[in-house]
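Researcher: We're teaching a course module on how sequence relates to structure. For the next exercise, students receive a sequence and then see the predicted structure as tokens, so they can try to spot secondary structure elements on their own. Here is the exercise chain.
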Amino acid sequence: MTTNSAGQGPDVVIVDAGAMQDLTEKYTEYRELLYGGGIFDPCRTIHLTGEVLASVRNVLVTAGRAQDTAEPAGEDKRRP
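Model: And here is the predicted structure for the students to work with:
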């Protein structure tokens, strides 16, 4: 929930459970590919950044579906 622009109480955001589950699965798959030692590097291949991952993680945490085992957001794994 967020406070509406008039500052008069919370706005309710409706979240589609199916879409949230799909996002959760894609996020989990991405993290496994990124940190699982595979040869596919999503950061280089599709140019995802720590900021993008942080945004996705925030959505998942807000929905109560993220595992809190992910590395801190904002780290750029492309640096040597």
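Model: If you want an answer key for the exercise: The helical segments are 17-35, 42-46, 50-62. The mean pLDDT is 69.
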